[in-house]
Design goal:
It is built from eight helices and no strands. Helix 1 packs antiparallel against helix 2 and helix 2 crosses helix 5. The termini are far apart. Keywords: Coiled coil, Ion channel, Ion transport, Membrane, Transmembrane, Transmembrane helix, Transport.
């Protein structure tokens, strides 16, 4: 129980610092893509920041594992975290660092009790839209047959892909770009399902509240009717007694 309390305490204390590092990762990932003419020193600093942020989330996983009371259960129930930690080690590609860090940030955000579902879904939509745009721009901009050349084109493509509209005016031509498109489409469908389910649950809860309120009012009217009948009976009995 003490180890479990230590694990929970660690998770609570590390939420804000890790989310701050996630913002630093977003800036470090975006700068070389938005500014392709950035100096080599700037690119190296951004790369170092990306590795540091990924390392911080990996260390967070290791510490949580060490503090867990049942480590096998922890690994089994946090397999996605483990996969995200190991992914960049298998092949240190920049895109893999992006995917692994997004997975780790997403898993960590789900653990934050103060984050409501609406906030989490909204953050996931914005994050996927932003990083999807940057990622596809980085792999498609230099493609000879590519038609996604600017950040505006990339954002428009990401938005139409996530919403599964797909106008076709912009589309990836490289293998990595198409893999990103598949990921964005699946993520968009999943998030749309979550939003739809959340709206449906809200309506159902409202209907249930109205039904409960209606039943309460009906019960109150029934009790009031019974009370009136009882009072009439007592009044009638009193009248009969006075006549005698």
């Amino acid at each position: 129980m003490q180890q479990q309390s230590a694990q929970l305490s660690w998770e609570q204390h590390m939420q804000r610092p890790l989310f701050g590092l996630a913002l630093a990762f977003a800036v470090a990932y975006a700068v070389p893509i938005v500014r392709p003419d950035a100096s080599r020193d700037v690119v190296e600093v951004c790369t170092a920041v990306e590795w540091v942020v990924w390392g911080a989330f990996a260390l967070d996983y290791v510490v949580r594992l060490a503090l867990a009371e049942q480590r096998r259960v922890f690994v089994r129930t946090h397999w996605l975290d483990l996969g995200a930690v190991l992914l960049p080690m298998l092949q240190p590609m920049r895109l893999l660092r992006l995917v692994s860090t997004l997975l780790l940030v997403g898993q960590r955000a789900r653990m934050a009790s103060q984050i409501k579902l609406t906030t989490y879904v909204g953050g996931a939509v914005v994050g996927l839209l932003m990083f999807g745009s940057l990622a596809v721009l980085s792999v498609e901009r230099d493609s000879p047959d590519g038609n996604i050349r600017t950040l505006g084109d990339a954002v428009w493509w990401s938005f139409t892909t996530m919403t599964t509209v797909g106008y076709g005016d912009h589309s990836p031509t490289t293998g990595l770009g198409r893999m990103l498109a598949v990921g964005l489409m699946l993520s968009g469908i999943a998030l749309l399902g979550v939003v739809t389910a959340n709206i449906a649950a809200w309506f159902i809860s409202r209907f249930e509240k109205d039904d409960v309120e209606e039943r309460r009012q009906t019960e109150a009217i029934r009790e009031l009717t019974e009370e009136v009948r009882r009072l009439r009976g007592e009044v009638a009995a009193l009248k009969g007694t006075s006549v005698e």
